[in-house]
Amino acid sequence: QVQLVESGGGLVQAGDSLRLSCAASGLTFSTHTVGWFRQAPGKEREFVASIRRSGDTWTGLSEEYADSVKGRFTISRDNDENTVYLQMNSLKPEDTAVYYCARRMSPTKYDLWGQGTQVTVSS
After folding, report:
1. Are 4 and 71 in contact (CB under 8 A)?
2. Which residues does 57 contact at the CB level (< 8 Å), separation at least 6?
3. Chain-centroid distance, C-alpha 66
4. Which of 13, 23, 28, 81 is packed most tightly, with the most Cβ within 10 A?
5. Dist CA 99 CA 66 (whole Å)
6. Where are the beta strands (DSSP E) in the chain?
7. What is the distance between the alpha carbons of residues 7 and 48, in angstroms, rounded to a whole number?
8. Sign (positive or negative) of CA dihedral 60, 91, 36, 54
9. pLDDT by residue for the chain (123 residues), tens digit each?
10. Burial (CB count within 10 angstroms: exposed 0-12, middle 13-18, buried 19+), residue 16
11. Cβ-based neighbours of 101, under 8 Å, separated by 6 or more
């Protein structure tokens, strides 16, 4: 069964750090660009970060970030573990949301999503 499973969310205080994991099964994660998204209560889902597939000949940035998280969040991947991570530092209350990882099938489409993991940052 092809699926993505997020983990690592929790309740933290402002300024703390968390590392989210997105573990893939049933597919070779390294051959896909993977993104992290988040959705806060009452808001639309928004892009957080993405990392291009391994071995991509793309000459641009291999990682991309939303302006709101640049310098604080880092996306990475461990191909041996078939997992993508999101290291989140200097967390702010406005980072509170359900975080989802997703596989990108085309430049404009993410087709496989995890169930999400809740991140709550208290002030």
Report:
1. no
2. none
3. 11
4. 23
5. 14
6. 3-7, 10-13, 18-25, 33-39, 46-51, 63-65, 73-78, 83-88, 97-106, 109-113, 117-122
7. 16
8. positive
9. 999 999 999 999 999 999 999 999 999 888 899 999 999 999 999 999 999 887 766 666 689 999 999 999 999 999 999 999 999 999 999 999 999 999 998 888 999 999 999 999 999
10. middle
11. 4, 6, 20, 22, 34, 35, 36, 37, 84, 86, 113, 114
Which pair of tokens denotes residue 40? 């806060």
CB 48 within 8 A of CB 36: yes
Contact 66, 49 (CB under 8 A): yes
Is residue 19 within 8 A of residue 37, CB to CB? The reply is no
